[in-house]
Q: What sequence folds into this?
């Protein structure tokens, strides 16, 4: 149809009569301002338009092809590249524009004529802009690809489906996995046991089960752990039906703890306890196994109800304890290596898997050991004697001292009763003093064997710790390892001759009060010899309290009433000192009746520690008297 306005007018006509609201079809509204700008009469333009349409309604004309709207995916054709933009024809009046960086580095660059799918992001409204002859459409190739990928996934993937993808990156709380679109794998769902660093999975191809699909938010959550657990549950049921005690199976070490290692048998984990790893001693399971190591183990026990399996490694070889009695008979001497030292003894390895205990009491005949480390250290090679074997408990008792001669075997011959020995006061007790005759050989000096005449309340009244003294051997009990010593036996018993010859009844002597009791007073006569002045013999009148008559340390005159060598007692009287012979005779008749009982233990008396030990320590030869 000819036009009086030429091509320019017709082009302007097409532009101005295009839909005015983002290419949506509606009644054509003529832009009067644009017409005026084209220098034509409005009435003439309408007449010309009607003539050109030849009676066809404007609403029936397809002005821009198919409908176009924001967020629509359409196919376009690459026209050219201008700077950072790629221009694309999507079949409409205006060209579309895509940023050049939407093509990845590994993709071939866009070529003119290439067809691509794009997403319409925005349409620029140019109507009413007199100076702009072209509007641009904002497009996105990348978003179109993602949307199409998402739609494809939504068509094929459902909850509980198993999907395969590549871990692309680590984000807060988990990982992103590309299964065509990025899906979320929470950190807690990566594995059955959460790895130390989930970032190690980046780049790995993994399988997961779809837990949840949120179409509105375009979000898919997957779990690798759930898939593994499901597979393991199926394998576990199958495996449990196949396992038997004593059976050998290959497995992979999955985890190591202080007490042992967990081994995956192919669907179920078994515990390989540290005590079942080796017949020998190991400090930590890592000495025997490592993570991801494949090992062969033996089934020791199966708990079908709790689905627990006990495994063994050492049981694959014969126990070294099977013929232990034949290899190490009681009494044999062998050499071993100290592998552990405890407060109660030392463990000695005889061979791999067999250890024996040397108790602290079996380490030395004579040395007093506070801790086994005083004699042995770890890795020391020592000689021991087998003392006993308990095969059931897998225990061997060993002795070190049995490799040497027992000095007690020679004690009776070396220190016969009656011989005089010299030793050091090693320890004091309430009942006596222990005298070390030689290293490890002690004798007991009882308090009753310290003095013939003196009552000893405590050994420190006679001896002091660390002093050297001489004693006489009284007896030797080799089986019980006891030696009885005496100090008083170094001198003759004065009660045999000296005391009865020196003190006679009726004799008046002087002495010093050493002790006062409720039944009388002890009076020291000489060299620790004491006599008892009974309370009835203190005065002519009745005495209720002896301290009213005499005081400790007071020197008094007393008369000897009796001397009993068998009981080692001397009876004294103070009130009879001035008596005449007639009075004595009368008193003697009265005393014909049984004498009042006096506790024999109290008649011995004592002079206390005021002047120090009665027996002075021996001085080593060459020691000066002033030291």
A:
């Amino acid at each position: 149809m000819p036009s009086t306005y030429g091509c320019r007018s017709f082009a302007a006509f097409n532009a101005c009569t295009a839909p005015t609201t983002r290419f949506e079809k509606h009644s054509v509204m003529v832009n009067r301002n644009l017409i005026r700008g084209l220098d034509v009469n409005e009435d003439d333009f309408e007449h010309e338009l009607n003539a050109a349409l030849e009676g066809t309604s404007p609403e029936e004309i397809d002005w821009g092809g198919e409908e176009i709207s924001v967020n629509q995916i359409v196919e376009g054709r690459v026209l050219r590249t201008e700077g950072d933009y790629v221009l694309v024809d999507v079949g409409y009046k205006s060209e579309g524009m895509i940023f050049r960086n939407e093509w990845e580095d590994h993709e071939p660059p866009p070529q003119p004529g290439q067809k691509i799918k794009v997403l319409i992001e925005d349409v620029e409204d140019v109507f009413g802009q007199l100076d702009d002859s072209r509007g641009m459409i904002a497009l996105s190739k990348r978003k179109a690809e993602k949307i199409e990928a998402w739609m494809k996934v939504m068509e094929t993937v459902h909850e509980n489906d198993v999907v395969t993808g590549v871990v692309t990156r680590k984000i807060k709380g988990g990982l992103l996995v590309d299964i065509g679109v990025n899906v979320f794998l929470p950190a807690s769902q990566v594995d059955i046991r959460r790895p130390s660093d989930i970032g190690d999975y980046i780049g790995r191809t993994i399988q997961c089960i779809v837990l949840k699909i949120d179409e509105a938010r375009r979000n898919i959550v997957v779990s690798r752990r759930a898939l593994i657990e499901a597979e393991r549950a199926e394998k576990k049921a199958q495996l449990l039906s196949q396992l038997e005690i004593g059976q050998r199976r290959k497995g992979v070490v999955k985890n190591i703890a202080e007490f042992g290692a967990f081994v995956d048998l192919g669907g179920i984990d078994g515990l390989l306890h540290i005590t079942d790893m080796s017949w020998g001693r190991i400090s930590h399971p890592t000495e025997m196994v490592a993570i991801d190591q494949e090992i062969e183990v033996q089934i020791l026990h199966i708990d079908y109800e709790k689905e627990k399996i006990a495994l063994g490694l050492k049981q694959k070889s014969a126990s070294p304890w099977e013929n232990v009695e034949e290899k190490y008979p009681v009494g044999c001497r062998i050499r071993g290596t100290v592998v552990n030292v405890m407060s109660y003894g030392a463990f000695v390895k005889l061979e791999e898997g067999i250890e024996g205990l040397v108790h602290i009491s079996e380490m030395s005949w004579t040395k007093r050991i506070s801790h086994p480390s005083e004699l042995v250290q770890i890795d020391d090679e020592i000689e021991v004697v087998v003392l006993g074997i308990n095969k059931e408990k897998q225990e061997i008792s060993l002795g070190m001292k049995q490799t040497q001669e027992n000095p007690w075997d020679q004690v009776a011959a070396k220190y016969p009763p009656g011989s005089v020995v010299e030793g050091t006061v090693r320890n004091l007790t309430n009942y006596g003093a222990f005298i070390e005759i030689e290293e490890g050989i002690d004798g007991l000096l009882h308090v009753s064997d310290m003095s013939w005449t003196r009552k000893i309340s405590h050994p420190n009244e006679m001896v002091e710790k660390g002093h050297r003294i001489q004693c006489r051997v009284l007896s030797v009990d080799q089986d019980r390892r006891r030696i009885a010593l005496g100090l008083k036996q170094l001198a003759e018993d004065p009660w045999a001759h000296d005391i009865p010859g020196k003190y006679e009844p009726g004799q008046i002597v002087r002495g010093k009060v050493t002790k006062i009791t409720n039944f009388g007073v002890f009076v020291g006569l000489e060299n620790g010899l004491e006599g008892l002045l009974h309370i009835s013999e203190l005065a002519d009148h009745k005495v209720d309290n002896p301290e009213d008559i005499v005081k400790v340390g007071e020197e008094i005159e007393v008369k000897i009433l009796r001397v009993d060598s068998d009981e080692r007692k001397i009876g004294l009287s103070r009130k009879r000192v001035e008596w005449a012979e007639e009075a004595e005779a009368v008193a003697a008749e009265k005393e014909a009746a049984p004498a009042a009982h006096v506790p024999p233990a109290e008649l011995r008396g004592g002079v206390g520690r005021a002047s120090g030990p009665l027996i002075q320590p021996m001085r080593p030869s060459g020691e000066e008297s002033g030291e």
